[in-house]
Amino acid sequence: VVPTAQEMAQHLLTQQLRCHQVVSLKGLTYLRRDAALRTAMKERINDWVDAGKLQTVQWHDGSVFYIQFGALDTRMPSTGKRLALLSPFDNAVIQRDRLRSLFGFDYQIECYLPEAKRRYGYFSLPLLYRGRFIGRMDCKAHRRRRELEIKSLHFETHDFNSNEVNQALDLALSSFKVFQGCDSVHGLR
Hints:
Layout: H1 5-20, E1 22-23, H2 25-28, H3 35-50, E2 54-58, E3 64-68, E4 83-85, H4 96-103, E5 125-129, E6 132-142, E7 147-155, H5 162-179, E8 184-187
Parallel strand pairs: 7-8
Antiparallel strand pairs: 1-3, 2-3, 4-5, 5-6, 6-7
Helix pairs in contact: 1-3
């Protein structure tokens, strides 16, 4: 049975709030070119706002987001000092407009650009540290040699302790090289 546009809107809104906590109309209908779904989503959002389930938040850049009512009053979870190397297709970064608006992180997969126009590398991975995107790393796994090569490493301006960031990156790379089937890491470090 194919869900109606209203049922799909309900499902997407509930799912995205659970996953992201902060949603936008554009993000809720991301990659779905369906006018009926977009209309149903607008109606569902308006119903939830009117019922006091959602509140509207206008971000500093003018973007409009929705959160569950009272979410801003809850304590934020601890992010620890772990650094995560994210895939360009990770749910946290796949919606580039959302990423730019909420985190001030302008990210693009550059493998689709001519080499002369690349700034950060062919397939750079976003670096997430303590809830902030602090940089990107382009790397290549040389599987036959079992080596992970760091081709480029770029950091955004941040106020974190550089030694702690470097330690967190070293720890992340230790796990990442194993995940990639490599025994060593070399390159820019």
